[in-house]
Amino acid sequence: MTLQDISARISKAEGDAGRTPGSVSLIAVSKVQPNARVQAVLEAGHRCFGENKVQEAAGKWPDFRETFGNVDLHLIGPLQSNKTRAAMELFDAIHSVDRPKLAKSIARIAQEEGHCPDLFVQVNTGEEEQKAGILPEDADSFVAECLSMDLPVKGLMCIPPVDEEPSLHFALLAKIAARNGLSGLSMGMSSDFERAIALGATHVRVGSAIFGERTKS
Predict the structure, then answer these.
(1) pTM, full prediction
(2) 100-113 and 139-148 helices, crossing angle to 10°
(3) Alpha carbons 119 and 184: distance in angstroms, whole number
């Protein structure tokens, strides 16, 4: 499958859902992909990418940006508090704001630096012990806490449990976002992004369907 194939499927899903054409951003998940594969997608004209780790992203994106110009870079993996400043310098959006300590760290650095990436609060919709994210019942108060610190919270993010129907989790995330007045919904991956778009996704995170299987874990 190619970037053009995925883009066509997104356009069709937008139309099927009665969504405005172009209302869904495709985040090409380039984590642990060889640079040659990432460069090929850049050369095809795509400019929105997602990375899981700050250190890995810092090792390749400054050079790519120098060559290809403006790239919209999203952190979609967990963020350690001690890497907050580096992440805020490198990324245009952080999708994994998942605890008060991290939110306070982002707010402090934003005050010092005078800028802040767009933020998405990660919600653990499946209430899985091993997974990061605010629990659904705590999401409203956490969003309010972030907004009280003047953080630019644009929306919510979730990663549904692998053994459950993702649409249930997408619908839950959309419900939480709506009651908090948030328009951004980062949800849907290679196997289920069309279902996510049907339920309001504004950002879908697609990796293997664009780049092929990863070469390492």
Answers:
(1) 0.95
(2) 20
(3) 10
